[in-house]
Amino acid sequence: MDNSKLLSSLSYFSVLFAPLLLPFIVWIVADNRDVKHHSKRALISHLIPTVLLVAASLISFFQFFSFRQTSTDFLDSQSLLTAPNSIGFWGAAPILFMMIYSFLFLIVLVWNIVQGVKVFK
């Protein structure tokens, strides 16, 4: 068994147990050019959903603190009657980003497993 193939494949499979950490360490430490190439590809593929998750978290954070109503208005029963019927973009943005993140993570997961099997053969 070739150690370079094992390290390259492990960089892709790390999406299951240590995304970002293992490919980064392998990329920094490895001397073999092919191992560095595969670990860099794995690191980039692990970064894509992470960046989207950070963006979704920031949007959710700003959406949470951008309510127009104060706490006293919220407790008032009349304000519930005058609330708008639609939630708008900022209300739907966290759900939209969670759906996009889930779909993208599934694609990245399958891609990394396929690449890991290809390299290991």
Which key phrases capture this entry?
mainly alpha, 0% strand, 121 residues, elongated
Which secondary structure elements does this structure contain, and how are they paired or packed?
Layout: H1 3-13, H2 21-29, H3 33-64, H4 71-75, H5 77-81, H6 88-120
Helix pairs in contact: 1-3, 1-6, 2-3, 3-6
Describe the model.
- The chain is an all-alpha fold and 121 residues long.
- The chain has 6 helices and no strands.
- The protein has helices at 3-13, 21-29, 33-64, 71-75, 77-81, 88-120.
- α2 runs antiparallel to α3.
- It is elongated and about 55 Å long.
Mean pLDDT: 79
Computed CA radius of gyration, to the nearest angstrom: 22 Å
Share of residues in strands? under 5%
Q: Let me know the number of strands.
A: 0
Summarize the structure.
Helices cover 79% and strands 0% of the residues. It contains 6 helices and no strands.
